[in-house]
Design goal:
seven-stranded mixed β-sheet; 12 helices; globular; alpha/beta
Length: 409
């Protein structure tokens, strides 16, 4: 959705060149992938840990607790696991990632995420070297050259799961092990970290006490002040959090009888990102599914249309202009839409740490009094972005929580 959580390739969205600031992130940051994680270390902790959020980061932190027999609870605001990971198995003859979709990191990171030694990856992946791509300025569809696409892939090689999804990977290797310790529909409204233990209040009146808390909620939840902190977050941290870009957006999936479109069409927009892309690309599937990804202010134009059906009609109208009516001609009437920007307790798409100030990243990663620790893609220190960054941040937060003392600072 640039180096991010659920997206199409960086260069094809923003047409970056090889001198951009993204050069030391994601797949090019293979040297920053840790040789080991908290999964490879034993921990002894005589206390209770509360993890807030059951997305990839929170589930990863929970796996460390589970593996070491540590007393823990996961509080999840929704009725499901996975956060911005979600899949659909009904629209096509292959599973579709409705949230995070691309593997922006070197595939070896998959082994680190599941605690497997070595660099030989078991998962069957699709190298995302595009065969056809175009740009669209609202009037003209312009193909990108093969040379450009080769140059992009050499600069930032990415991949996708061939027969599976990010949701499956995280649930099979992490989430399923900790699911029994998750309390669903538990919306945290207040954290009181005044004393050596932390008091957690939820909107339904429940109270939890923890020796350590790992806060693994989307950064948008922190930006909107949905969790009250006592003592309050200091101004330096609050200002740094507000400067992090966590833009609104959605993903739409349209099924067609034929594939009349290239692998990717990137659209010229004043800010944010917009692109159509072939979801079935190299999936060895018979279903034809085209996705529309919109992030940033432009998404609000679609939201103002009201119903999801109106959003679908708008996308079809634009495709008809691009492809001389082929969209309406071949549309099966089947579609899915995930409005991540307006989903409660999510309220955004992804973060891109390489775009943020290093000082801000350092500030927001600091724990509160060695009692409250932060996890999530924006808190990753290994420059991996997206799901790998989120999972690694969860392991790091678990390690920090289990090895730090409780002295106030």
């Amino acid at each position: 959705m640039n180096c991010r959580c659920f997206v199409i390739p960086i260069a094809l969205v923003v047409l970056v060149n090889v001198t951009s600031g993204c050069g030391n992130w994601a797949a090019r940051a293979v040297k920053h992938i840790p040789a080991s994680t908290a999964l490879d270390r034993p921990y002894a902790f005589d206390g209770h840990v509360v993890i807030v959020g059951a997305g990839p980061a929170g589930l990863a932190a929970a796996k460390v607790m589970e593996q070491n027999g540590i007393d823990y609870t996961v509080l999840e605001a929704t009725d499901r696991l996975g956060g911005r990971l979600k899949k659909d198995t009904t629209l096509a003859d292959f599973p579709i990632d409705l949230g995070a979709e691309w593997i922006h990191s070197n595939p070896v990171v998959l082994n680190r995420m599941k605690g497997k030694p070595g660099d030989e990856v078991e998962e069957e992946l699709i190298p995302y070297r595009l065969e056809s791509s175009s740009t669209w300025d609202g009037k003209e569809l312009r193909p990108l050259t093969d040379r450009f696409m080769n140059r992009y892939y050499e600069f930032m090689p990415e991949s996708k799961f061939k027969h599976s999804t990010w949701y499956d990977f995280v649930m099979n290797n992490i989430g399923d092990e900790v699911a029994d310790n998750v309390i669903h529909k538990s919306v945290v409204s207040r954290l009181d970290w005044t004393w050596d233990s932390v008091e957690i209040a939820t909107t339904d009146g429940q109270r939890h006490t923890a020796d350590k808390v790992i806060l693994a909620v989307p950064v948008g939840v922190l930006q909107k002040g949905e969790i009250e902190f006592n003592p309050p977050l200091d101004k330096v941290r609050s200002d740094a959090l507000q400067r992090i870009d966590f833009l609104t957006g959605f993903k739409m999936f349209l099924r067609f009888e034929e594939c009349f479109y290239p692998n990717v069409v990137t659209c010229k927009v004043p800010s944010g990102e917009k692109a159509f892309y072939d979801v079935a690309y190299k999936k060895e599937a018979s279903s034809h599914v085209l996705a529309l990804l919109v992030q940033g202010e432009l998404a609000n134009n679609y939201f103002e249309l009201g119903s999801n059906e109106a959003k679908v009609e708008s996308a079809l109208d634009e495709l008809d202009v691009m492809f001389d009516g082929a969209a309406t001609e071949h549309f099966t009437g089947e579609w899915r839409l995930e409005n991540w920007g307006q989903t409660p307790h999510i309220e955004g798409t992804w973060t891109a740490a390489y775009r943020e100030r290093s000082r801000d990243l350092k500030t927001i990663r600091k724990p509160l009094g060695n009692r409250v620790f932060f996890a999530g893609e924006i808190f990753d220190m290994h420059r991996q972005m997206g799901v790998p960054g989120a999972v690694l941040s969860g392991y790091d937060a678990a390690h920090a929580a289990l090895t730090s003392d409780s002295k106030r600072n």
